[in-house]
Amino acid sequence: MIPTAGYRIPHFPQENPVNLNTWRGLRVAFLALALIAFAACDKGKKGDGGGGGSTGGGASATGPIKIGHFASMTGPQATFGISTDQAIRLAIKERNAKGGVKGRKIELVTIDDAGKQSEAATAVTRLINDDHVVAVLGEVASSLSLAGGPIAQKAKIPMISPSSTNPDVTDIGDYVFRVCFLDDFQGWVDAKFAKDNLKATKAAILYDQAQAYSSGLADYFDKAFKDLGGTIVTKQAYTGGNLEISSQLQSIKGSGAEVVFLPGYYSDAGTIIRKAREAGITAPFLGGDGWDSEELPKIAGDAINGNYFSNHYAPEEDRPEVKNFVENFKKEYGKTADGLAALGYDAALVLFDAMERAPSLSGKDLRDALAATKGFTGVTGTFSIDENRNAQKSAVIIEYKGGKQTMAARIEKK
Ligand code: PHE
Going from the N-terminus, what domains does the chain have, and what CATH number goes with each? Predict the structure, then answer.
C-alpha cells in the first residue's frame, strides 16, 4: 500500500524546538505525494468508516497502542498545535517510561491540519481509517473540532478536545469529550473581571466573525456584561487574517468604551491591539484564551502591556502538578509551557487513565471509561467529566506587564 504522506508526521522530534519553516517546507515537499496517496487510500477505504477502533492500532493487538492528534502545526494558529503536541509527547514519554498503559507502549500519530476546516476533517478520517488509532486528541480551535468531531463520532472512536471551548463541540455526540471549561463560563468570567476589577460599565466588542469560538464568546460576554449591569456601547466584527479594520477602530474610539473585549486568536489580536493604540484607543483590551501564545507580545510589541485575557492555568501557580509540569516541560523544550500545553497534557493523562480502566480499548469501552472520569487532578485543576462530556473548572485572568504574563485573578465557577 502506498504510505500515507504529506503533513502526517508520525515521529515528530520532541528534542528539537519546532522550526516553522521546516514544517512549511515539509508540507510543500510532500503535498503532491499526499494527493496521490490520499486518492489511492481513499479507494480502498469505502465503507470502512464504521469500526476503525476494533483492530489495528491497538484495540486487540499487543504492540504499541496508537493514539491520534490532529492539530494546526502550521498556519495562523501554529503555536496552538505545536504547544499541544509537545505536551502530549511529554505525557507519553513519561508514561512509557513507567511501562505505558496495560503493559503496552503508547505511540502518537500527529497530522497537521494547517488550521483549515477541510484538512481537519481529512486528518481525523486518516487517523481512524489509515492509522487505526484507538482515540483522537484535538483540536484546539473550536471550528476545527466542529469539523473533525463528526467523523470521530460516526466511527465511534472517542475524541478529546484539550481546549475547544465553544459549547457546540461536545454536542456533536457521545464520543466527543473535552477537558477545558466552556465559553458561556469564559464569557461570564471576562464580564465579571471587566465589571469588578477594571470597574468598567461601558464595553466595546470586536470579534472574528469567521470563528465559532470568537463569535460565540462575544455573545456570551455581551449577555453576561449586561446581566451584571453594564452597557455594550458598540459591537464590531472582522474576519481573521483580514485586518483592514480602521472603520471598526474609529467606531470603538468614539464609543466611550472603558474596556474593549477582543475574543480573537493571537495572530489577529496582536496586530489589532497595536493598530488600536496607533489609532488613539487607550482603553484596556480584554481577551479570551485564544490570546495564549508566545507570539502575541512579539506581534503587539509594547502595546501589549496593560491588557488582560482569561486562561486555563498560570505557570506560576503553587500546586505540585503545575510545578512538576512546568519544570519537566522546560527541561524538554527549553521554554515555559502555555495553557495549550497544560490542556494537551491533561487531555493525554485523562485518556491514559481511561485506557487503563477500560476493559478493552474498543471505542465503546474507552468511551464509557472516559465518561466515568471523576475527580481527576491535572495541571489545569481537579475536574470531572459531566453528563455532557464537559469539564467544569475555574479560570485565571492573565495581565501583560513589561511584556510578561502575570496572574491577575482567579475566578471560580459561577
Ligand atoms: N478556546 C479556543 C477555541 O475554542 C482555543 C484555545 C484554547 C486557544 C486555549 C488558546 C488557548 O477555539
Answer: 65-180+320-392 (3.40.50.2300), 184-311 (3.40.50.2300)
pLDDT tens, position by position, 330-339: 999 999 999 9
Nearest to 319 by CA among 311, 309, 327: 327
Index of the ligand 1 atom closest to the CA of residue 164: 4
Which residue's alpha carbon is nearest to atom 7 within ligand 1?
A: 163
Residue range 132-173, pLDDT digits in tens: 999 999 999 999 999 999 999 999 999 999 999 999 999 999
Ligand 1 and 225: CB distance under 6 A:
no
Q: Which residues pair with 391 in a beta bridge?
A: 385
Taking only the tens place, the pLDDT of each residue in 9-45 is: 544 433 333 444 444 444 444 444 444 444 444 333 3
The finding on whether 240 has its CB within 6 A of some atom of ligand 1 is: no
Q: Decide whether any atom of ligand 1 lies within 6 Å of the 289 Cβ.
A: yes
- Name the residue at shortest CA distance from atom 10 of ligand 1: 290
| Cβ partners under 8 Å of residue 408, min gap 6 | 193, 197, 308, 396, 397, 398, 399
